[in-house]
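Reply to dn_fold:

You asked what the input looked like. This is it:
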Amino acid sequence: MDKDTVERLKKSAEAHFEECREISDHMADDPEVGLDNSRAADLITGYLAGKGYEIEKDWLGVKSAFKASKGDSSLPAAALFCETDALPGLGHACGHCLSAAASLLAAACVDDVFPEMPFRVELIGTPGEEYPGGKVLLDKQGAFNDHLFGIMTHMGPDTVPDSGFLACNDRLITFRGKASHASDAPEKGINALNAARLYMDAMDMRRQHLPSMSQLHGVVENGGTMPGIVPDKTVLNYYYRAKTMKELQELNAISDDALRGAELMTGATAEQKQVYETYADLYRNPVSRKLVCEVFDSLGIQYEVNEAYDGSSDIGNVDQKIPCFHPYMSISDEHPAVHTKRFSELLKSDGAYKSIMDAGMAMAEIIGRLGTEEGLYDEIRDQHRRYRSSVK
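and this is what came back:
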């Protein structure tokens, strides 16, 4: 992008930064968890309404979700996500207050610098990213079927052009046996804890033969009452992750086999249920990565490129249908891990505010280039479609 456009972008960001920073600070001071993000949603939509946006609250029946749009409704739309939820006990240690502010800044910059575009930008409020998955709930209602692409920036310890999110789901597994006196009548008991142990051992043995990016994490929520009683109930809580949805389904099938084996070996029975929504994988599109790196370079943003795949997010569910951009922006030279007390302590630091500015400008330039450079969006879309077809 030419230097004149970059300079106009920077001036626009400076002009709108303070009001976006104030929104981030308000959210940091008043964190809301899960889907109940009504105060944050009211704050953001009030700001956007003042900028001429039409607001739909509790969009598609999802509590605290919103859609803010303006411009020519006959044009296709891109989705600019505003995450609003926090973490229990840690506030916005997830960085969502900063991320939402950056999205608002990006929208303002696009209005100023790229007024003539072949698409319009809709700001989509997405509560409950941590749980239960606001984007998943919206996607189930067809929210993103007609969008061209989705974009947001997450704040974190490092600045990277894209994220390697894994597909993820959970199982709450309850083993049921038969209680008896562990010394006086052990032969009358059926040990639910032993069944759980067999399942856990079987999954650990299979772990070494899983695809390299497949993961499982589990805890014992209930192992019994006391040593002298054969446990008649044991509860396990497990998460499963994989590089693709197909590999996640294969991992789930292995888990089902292990459960049946534990039942056969012990006489216990197993019940399982999924508590949370399934989070799908996010594709690292090489064409998108190249674009983001070029934008970072043009703005003088220092970054690194890595190939790590870890963690999960509901933006992966949107990426099953449309290309999604999800860079990370560092908030401090300390490189604090997200979901920690130290990260939440830095939400009002100079580094955090710089991340709003840098992320807002970067997203605006990405959107601007997608709207003004002939063939760029088509290349990203076609690469995304080829990948998604290959992993079904």
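Residues 3-164+281-390 form a domain with the Aminopeptidase fold (CATH 3.40.630.10).
Hope that clears it up.
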